[in-house]
């Protein structure tokens, strides 16, 4: 079992209590469905976890079948939706052309092979089906990355894919009319330790969450000292670059990638 899966299983019981950012982004992702029309008989919530997005979908589409899929079994136990699948997003246990909408909130950044993921999503979508998602971009946790960078050259924070590259991957996997946009959200913390604990509490700890034991107390304290230089109004910022995207499975050719920067 992967370390990521273990972390999410371990955090599942307390996830909803700490996942305020994830819930906010789920709400914003759901709101995008207001201006996107399409059939909604069957919806796949990909990386559904404990059901933050699923609950919004259930309210918006009360007559639709919502399938919640996640690789963390314990997270799904806390999801109240009826249809649940514990499976790998890169190998979806669903029939070809069986889903009207694939929607995914903050899951893609944990997938090592976006091309395989998009190929699977394209396979299970019906013609004229929609894929809609949110994920994190390269500026996410930039303060933490820069603070570690002055300590050593090791990778202490997860890397995230640029939205232009995500758009290219969608096109390469036969999706049409992809639209990508991004916004920046900033959380504030009393201390770096509070930030790292917050990440750990939702199972999304970066490499840095384990770095104190791996790199030694001296380097860890040096990183904290550097991070303190970002303090403003007695708070430490943590930046999140949130990427939203949607694209269609269609047999006809449609345009290139519109990029919308908010």
Summary?
This protein is α/β, with parallel strands linked by helices and 262 residues long. The chain is 36% helix and 25% strand. An eight-stranded mixed β-sheet has the order 3-2-1-4-5-7-6-8, sandwiched between helices.
Structure write-up:
By secondary structure, this protein is α/β, with parallel strands linked by helices. The protein has a single domain (3-140, 159-185, 241-261), classed as 3-Layer(aba) Sandwich (Rossmann fold). The chain contains eleven helices and eight strands. It has an eight-stranded mixed beta sheet with strand order 3-2-1-4-5-7-6-8, with helices on both faces. Helix 3 runs parallel beside helix 4 (52-60) and helix 7 (142-149) crosses helix 11. The relative contact order is 0.17. The model is unreliable at 206-213 (pLDDT under 50).
Q: How do the helices and strands line up, and which of them pair or pack?
A:
Blueprint: H1 3-11, H2 15-18, H3 20-31, E1 42-46, H4 52-60, E2 65-70, H5 73-77, E3 83-86, E4 99-105, H6 114-124, E5 125-136, H7 142-149, H8 163-172, E6 176-189, H9 192-201, H10 211-215, H11 217-227, E7 236-249, E8 259-261
Parallel strand pairs: 1-2, 1-4, 2-3, 4-5, 6-8
Antiparallel strand pairs: 5-7, 6-7
Structural class: alpha/beta
The residue ranges in which pLDDT falls below 50 over 5 or more consecutive positions are 206-213
Q: What is the CA-CA span between the terminal residues?
A: 38 Å
**Number of domain units:** 1
> Could you say what the CATH topology is called?
Rossmann fold
Q: Please tally the helical runs, counting DSSP H or I stretches of 4 or more residues.
A: 11
CATH superfamily: Vaccinia Virus protein VP39
Specify the overall morphology: globular
Secondary-structure arrangement, i.e. CATH architecture: 3-Layer(aba) Sandwich
Strand order of the largest sheet: 3-2-1-4-5-7-6-8
DSSP strand count: 8
Q: What does the average pLDDT come to?
A: 87
SSE string, helices as H and strands as E: HHHEHEHEEHEHHEHHHEE
Question: What would you report as the Rg, rounded to the nearest angstrom?
Answer: 19 Å
Binned strand content: 15-25%
CATH top level is Alpha Beta
